[in-house]
Structure formats: C-alpha cells, structure tokens
Amino acid sequence: MSSHHPLVIGNWKMNPATSAEAKALFLAVRKKVKRDAPVSVVVAPPFPFIPDLSRLSPGGRLPLAAQDVFYEDAGAYTGEVSGSMLASLGVSYVIIGHSERRALGETDAQVNKKILACLRRKLTAVVCIGERERDLRGDFFSVVEGQLRALCTGLSARQLAAVVIAYEPIWAIGTGKTATPEDVKEMQLFITSVLVKLYDRALGKRMRIIYGGSVKPDNAAALHEAGGMQGFLVGGASLKADDFGAIITSVIS
Fold it and tell me: Which of these is catalytic: 5, 100, 106, 168?
C-alpha cells in the first residue's frame, strides 16, 4: 500500500456565494486541522476565492486545490485557467475529470492532456474515475479500466506515481447513495490490479487512491477502515466545518 498519509480533499464545487463566506469556512476548517496530525487535508474552492484563501494559509498550512485546469499554458482560450496561473497563486492540487465536468463533455483525451499540464507545473493531479451505474454482469469494471487506460496514456510510472486517483461512482454522487465498504475495497483492488498490469507491482502498491461519493461523518470511518482507500474526496460535507473535521478524524489511525 501507499506510504503516504491519508489524503482528504474538500471539493466546495460552486459554493459558497461570497468571498467573505469562503474565508470564514476556510478558517473554520483550518482550526480542525492539527499541524502534527498524520493526514493531508486540502480545500478546493471556486477559482475566484483562491487568492484570498491562499493568503490565509501561510506556508501552505492548508493546501489549496483548483477544481479544473486547462491543458494549454497560454493563448486565445477565453474563460480558461492555466496550470501556470494556478501555480502562481499557490495552488498545489487540481481536480481533473470530475463526473460533473465529464457530463459537460470533457473527454478521456482531455483529461489526459490536463494531467500532463499539471505535471509540467508540478501540480498534483487528482483524477476522478467511476462508473455511471452498476450492473449484475460486472460491465462497470470495463468502464473504470477504460478510464484508467486513457488517463495513463503517455505517462511513465514515475509521472503516474505523482498523480492521485479518486474513485467516485457517479451513482453515489449527490444522490444520498453510498458504495458499501465492500464495494469500495473491491474497486480498490481492481484499480490496483489494472495499474500493476499497465506498469508494475511496485507502482500499484504506492499509488494514492481515494474514494468520493456521499462521504459523511457517519460512514467515513467504515469506508476508510474496510474500503482500503487512502482518503476521501468530499463534496457536500466539506461545506460544514464540523462534518469535514469529523471525516478528517476518521482517517487518522
């Protein structure tokens, strides 16, 4: 398994409404994170709030993630944000390929290009994969394998080792449904087996794989202990500092 500390990322999505609310939430979350705790905690706010929150995190005490990135470094790309821009603001992580972005048309090929853009700027790519639905035949495994193969295209083992894979079954995002710890463990083993097949056993063991999908304080401990993942990508529960703090505590053994 990976030797990294567990990783817990709060994806705020398009919340909260104002910079003042974002700063208040960030400070509340920061109080929940003990400096010496064996866990890495990251917050992913909307783009406009990143500069203000970066100033509230001297020395990167509470690292920031962006919710997306464009794959070119500069040019005539109205509305896009480059990796160099994010790096200049103190961003350390970037969420790529979230199902909500894929639903808007983002392709596996674009996800791969965004990973390469992050690697160029030494940003940690958190790449989301996951099936839309489960079937009794197990066809959903081929969906996940296809996403894995696509994101790995052109990446060396060393490059991929710098990436975080976030397994988020789409049917469990914002639906109130949650994969069972057994479901999560099964997928952790499957993802690792695919990576071993594509690269080698050493890479499979050291990859960081986290889970996302209706993670809450009341299910986080069971998902972490039995699911075999190295942390969580948290959506709605990350907007409440107490709930997010409880999830952070759940991964500390």
Answer: 168
